[in-house]
Every structure is written in structure tokens, then in C-alpha cells.
Automatic annotation (TrEMBL):
Name this polypeptide is given: Ubiquitin-conjugating enzyme
Organism name: Colletotrichum asianum
Keyword tags: Membrane, Transmembrane, Transmembrane helix, Ubl conjugation pathway
SMART domains: UBCc
Keyword Transmembrane helix appears in the UniProt entry: yes
KW Transmembrane helix (keyword) present: yes
Amino acid sequence: MATPKFNSKSPTIRRILREAQELSNSPSPDYTATPLESDLFEWHFTFRGPPNSSYSDGIYHGRIVLPPTYPLRPPSFRFLTPSGRFETNREICLSISGHHEETWQPAWGVRTALVALRSFMETDPRGQLGGLETSDAVRRRHATASQTFKCPTCAKTNLEIIQECEESAKSIAATSESSDVEIPSELKMGWKDEMGKLTERQHHAQETPRQDDGDAESAELAEGFVRTAPKQGGPETRQVPRSQVPAPDIAAGSNGPSPSILTPTRTVSLPPAPNVRQAHQRPHDEGVPLWVDRAIVALVVLLLAMILKVVLDF
């Protein structure tokens, strides 16, 4: 079978090859993970159950799928062997919140995620999405049966795979010291199919208040325009608060003059401002100076005198 060719210049491919080499050079007696020869983005993992637990006799096998944007997005894990703790063939994603893939840190790798997933088996499944609540007897029965599980792709049983890991780890331990993997405290687990649903719900919840706020803001602005901008060509309307209308004093036996009773009105109509300005401007524009009036009177008097003189001469 020909060895497939990969683009070694791709940052994702270089990262995957480096992690695979690191896991091979520093094996652990408790877990292993290797990529497929035909697909670097699909790995198979095998690990022992956590010690001092109902899973301690179990050896669990599964698949790892790396996204095309790895390590910017987290790998997803899928158990192929029943454990009584996790559902089989359901993708698991690891992130800070356990609900958003975007919170995955690129500094984490397959080894860190694998060790964290192994430690999560000891946590209480109650209240967790996809967590199986089974008895310890059922989990021990699954643990015993998992040793003989044989993956068709790997063509080895779980027991054979973990025995090879132990032998490799012993040979490496004779020449170098092994260091424990520190699990980030903020690393959490979540089901991939639930992540998408939760992200959609949160996105919808965030968009709904924004829409309501926008409607409220629009209504507030519309109300402001109604209060401050009168219609063109129509009468201006002013609101008269009830608190400013004096209450009539109608107390019986009052000796003073009876005050006028004001009828409260809610609106007072005024003529449009442009028309008022035009009415005030007409007397000023069309008015005649006083000397013109006097000159007209003098001319009329002279005209009458001339007429009388002509009449008297005849």
C-alpha cells in the first residue's frame, strides 16, 4: 500500500506530525494514541481506566477526529467500547466552558486532552449531558469485557495494545525520566452535538433583548418626536399639566370675592408660527409716513380753493 502524501508545509500537518512523534518518543504505560496511516486527521486511542475506581480493570478504545483548523479548534473523541460512564459513538469535545469550541486553547494537544478525558471518567455523571448513570457492578462488567475488544481498524485487542505501551514505556523509562501531564483546571468536557444547540439558543437569547431594546428605543424616539415637532400647516399643541391648573376655592361661607373658576383644558390651540409672523409684518411693511398724509390733505385744500375761485368768477 502506497504511503499517502501530505503537505508538510501546512501548519496543521506539522503540528499533527509533531504531536504524533512526541507521543511515540515519550510513551505512557496507561494510554496511547496514533494517527491512521491513511488519514492524519483520524486517530485511535486506548487507555486504562482510572485506578482505584470501578473502571480500573477496563481498557477503553475510541477514535479522535481532528478538525481541519486544528489546533485552533478542539479534537473530538468518540468511545467505541462501552464503559457505563459515556455513551458510545457520541462525539465529545473539550474546552474551557464545556459548551463552546472557541474556548479551546491551541497550546493544548492530544495528550493533554486524552489525559483529561481519562480523568473525567471518575466524575459524577449526574446532571451531565450524555452521562450514563449505571451501577458499579455494570461498570465492572463493562471493564472486564473491554479487554478483549478488538478494533477492526487497529486489528488488535485492547489488551494487546496496552501491553505494547507498557513495554515501550519501560524501555524509555530506563534511559529517561517520564514527566506527568498536568491537566488544566479550566478544561471541561461537553458533547459536540449539544454544543451547537446551546450556541444557537444563546445566540437567539442575545439577539432577542437587542431587538426588544431596539423597539423600545424606536418607540421612545417616536414619542419624543410627537412631543417636540408639530405638524407643518397645523396648529401647535402644548400640553398643560393638571398640577398647574389652580383648584377653585368653593368653601362655603367665604366673605371675600369669589374667585373665577378655571376650567382645566388639556390642550391649547395656537395659530401656526409662520402666520403669526406674517400678521405682525404687514402693518410695518404697508404703513404710510405721516408727512405723506399731511401733503395729501394740503393738496385737497388747494384743489377745493381753486374750484371755489373758478365758480365765484362766473
